[in-house]
């Protein structure tokens, strides 16, 4: 598997994402790909890390969405390649219309940085099949704009089609339906506010994020590598 | 150059936590007559005039300046009065 970690000006979880992929999956190639790159066609999976792309000026993710690389990210996403956006990456996916809805300031207007309980609502995606449905994970969050908002029709569609992949176990930031992560209709684009790449080692608090990355890798292996 | 003032507000029905915080503070100061406060953004663009200037401003709002999922926008064009 060739994995691309896109680096925007202001990305600050790129190295954690890189670490998660290089040290916990068997990906052959993991590249830090600058936002100025024209094409990510050569990669099998694309990762948009957390941070503050373009300083979050105007709105989180609004400017990054027009980075040169995003055209190609959108094309590859529509081809069905796995695309994961974490935190600011999730905000960028929303702004790019790859996922429905929008982010608002947290309900209490506070930036929150702590580990929270996250429920696995759907363990049938290429990102989550190494988890069990209903499993409760400990995953850190770090965001000020994580209050996910969508209209009722969108919420019903998300729910009816199992596109809500993660929810917070409690009301963390005011998100509609305690949503912590959703996929697109095809299931190959996942946006989530909690940081699985920061939950890779028990020494640092939790290793509950590991299986997300191993899921993506195994999905690629199962669909691309012919076993004899 | 022409000034275009763009106002971005949250859509009706979208919870406005910043507005609520300001309203509570006003009420704490004794300004109980303030029922609701909405917090939005104001952007001033200096643009060169042209035949499709307003259509382009509209495009800018749709594409980048506002997020149509949760935000509304209005703008007004300020032209210098000719003396």
Please characterize this protein's 3D structure.
The complex is a heterodimer of chains A (228) and B (83). Chain A has helices spanning 14-24, 68-79, 88-95, 152-160, 210-224, and strands at 2-7, 29-34, 45-48, 83-86, 102-104, 112-120, 136-143, 147-149, 164-168, 179-183, 189-192. By secondary structure, chain A is of the alpha/beta class. In chain A, a hairpin with a 5-residue loop joins strand 10 (179-183) and strand 11. The model of chain A has no long low-confidence stretch (mean pLDDT 96). The model of chain B has no long low-confidence stretch (mean pLDDT 92). Chain B has a single domain (2-79), classed as Mth169, Chain: A. The relative contact order of chain B is 0.33. The A-B interface holds A 58-59, 62-63, 66, 94-95, 100-102, 104-109, 147, 149-150, 174 and B 10, 14-15, 17-18, 21, 64-65, 67, 69-70. Chain B: Pfam families: PurS (PF02700).
Helix content of chain B: 25-40%
CATH homology group of chain A: Class I glutamine amidotransferase (GATase) domain
Give the topology string of chain B: H per helix, E per strand. EHEHE
CATH fold topology of chain A: Rossmann fold
The helix/strand class of chain B is alpha+beta
Task: Just name the CATH architecture of chain A.
Answer: 3-Layer(aba) Sandwich
Order of helices and strands of chain A: EHEEHEHEEEEHEEEH
**Beta-strand content estimate of chain B:** 25-35%
CATH superfamily of chain B: Phosphoribosylformylglycinamidine synthase subunit PurS
Q: Roughly what is the average pLDDT of chain B, rounded to an integer?
A: 92
Number of helices of chain B: 2
- Helix residue percentage of chain A: 10-25%
Could you give the topology of this structure?
The complex is a heterodimer of chains A (228) and B (83).
Chain A: E1 2-7, H1 14-24, E2 29-34, E3 45-48, H2 68-79, E4 83-86, H3 88-95, E5 102-104, E6 112-120, E7 136-143, E8 147-149, H4 152-160, E9 164-168, E10 179-183, E11 189-192, H5 210-224
Parallel strand pairs in A: 1-2, 1-3, 3-4, 4-11
Antiparallel strand pairs in A: 5-8, 6-7, 6-9, 9-10, 10-11
Chain B: E1 2-10, H1 17-28, E2 41-47, H2 53-65, E3 71-78
Antiparallel strand pairs in B: 1-2, 1-3
């Amino acid at each position: 598997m060739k994995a691309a970690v896109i680096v925007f000006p202001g990305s600050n979880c790129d190295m954690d994402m890189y670490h998660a992929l290089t040290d916990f999956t068997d990906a052959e190639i993991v590249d830090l790909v600058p936002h100025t790159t024209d094409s990510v066609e050569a990669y099998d999976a694309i990762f948009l890390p957390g941070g503050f792309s373009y300083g979050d000026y105007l709105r989180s993710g609004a400017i990054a969405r027009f980075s040169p690389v995003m055209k190609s990210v959108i094309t590859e996403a529509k081809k069905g390649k796995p695309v994961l956006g974490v935190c600011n990456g999730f905000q960028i996916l929303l702004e790019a219309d790859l996922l429905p809805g929008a982010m608002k300031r947290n309900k209490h207007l506070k930036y929150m940085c702590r580990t929270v309980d996250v429920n696995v609502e759907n363990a049938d995606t290429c990102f989550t099949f190494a988890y069990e449905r209903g499993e409760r994970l400990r995953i850190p969050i770090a965001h000020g704009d994580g209050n996910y908002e969508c209209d009722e029709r969108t919420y019903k569609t998300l729910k009816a089609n199992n596109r809500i992949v993660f929810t917070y176990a409690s009301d963390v930031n005011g998100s509609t339906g305690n949503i912590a992560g959703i996929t697109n209709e095809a299931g190959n684009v996942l946006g989530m506010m909690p940081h699985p790449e920061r939950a890779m080692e028990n020494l640092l608090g939790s290793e509950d994020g590991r299986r997300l990355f191993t899921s993506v890798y195994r999905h690629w292996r199962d669909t691309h590598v012919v076993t004899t | 150059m022409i000034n275009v003032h763009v106002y971005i507000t949250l859509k009706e029905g979208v919870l406005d936590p910043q507005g609520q915080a300001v309203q509570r503070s006003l009420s704490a100061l004794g300004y109980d007559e303030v029922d609701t406060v909405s917090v939005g953004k104001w952007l001033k663009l200096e643009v060169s005039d042209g035949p499709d200037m307003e259509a382009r401003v509209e495009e800018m709002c749709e594409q980048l300046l506002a997020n149509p999922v949760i935000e509304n926008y209005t703008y007004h064009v300020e032209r210098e009065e000719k003396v």
